[in-house]
Design goal:
188 residues, mainly alpha
């Protein structure tokens, strides 16, 4: 029997299919593994913690895939929402939790030096790729996205620093993120 080809399915479809076919979640995982590793590596600068957090986020996402609602936002946004919560919990507790992995009875991972180097390589490549995409935006959008997403400035702070209105900043961020999403789709 042939396995289904989920490479053309969108992210929301993959999450919806996960309950009936774990292969769908495997494709979802492959789409976002490098991005999550890059996110956590940039936040922690530690490959071991980035790998642990990535594993925990995907375990939590697998557990709650059926609860994802596309009308509430993108699957990527949902996944990175889980990631931000895990990162905040890690900073608060001073360690990576593994609740979801324990519930799913996933054995803890032991990473060799070679595996840690691979995590750093994948994470740094994802970071470089994202920064290259960001650099490809028009300057006004690049500055707005950089300030809002990377520096986490609120719209009032960003508008003041860019000497424009908050509504214009929102428009620039929105257009910039839309352009980045389109370019990411072209590269995957």
């Amino acid at each position: 029997m042939r396995r289904p080809d989920y490479t053309q399915a969108d992210d929301a479809e993959l999450l919806a299919l996960t309950a009936s076919d774990p292969e769908a979640f495997g494709v979802f995982y492959e789409r976002f593994e490098a991005q999550l590793l890059g996110f956590f590596w940039r936040a922690t600068r530690r490959a071991d913690i980035a790998a642990d957090l990535t594993a925990e986020v995907f375990a939590a996402a697998l557990e709650s895939a059926a609860a994802f609602r596309p009308q509430s936002g993108s699957a990527r946004g949902w996944l990175f929402g889980i990631a931000r919560h895990e990162l905040a919990d890690t900073w608060e507790r001073g360690r990576v939790e593994d609740r979801a992995r324990r519930r799913m009875q996933v054995a803890p991972q032991t990473l060799t030096d070679e595996a840690l180097e691979r995590v750093e390589e994948v994470a740094s490549r994802a970071s470089r790729d994202a920064l290259q995409l960001l650099e490809s935006l028009p300057e006004d959008q690049r500055l707005a996205v950089n300030g809002r997403v990377l520096h986490e400035l609120d719209y009032a702070e960003l508008a003041a620093s860019l000497s424009c209105s908050q509504s214009l900043v929102r428009q620039r961020v929105s257009r910039g993120l839309r352009a980045l999403r389109a370019r990411l789709k072209e590269t995957t």
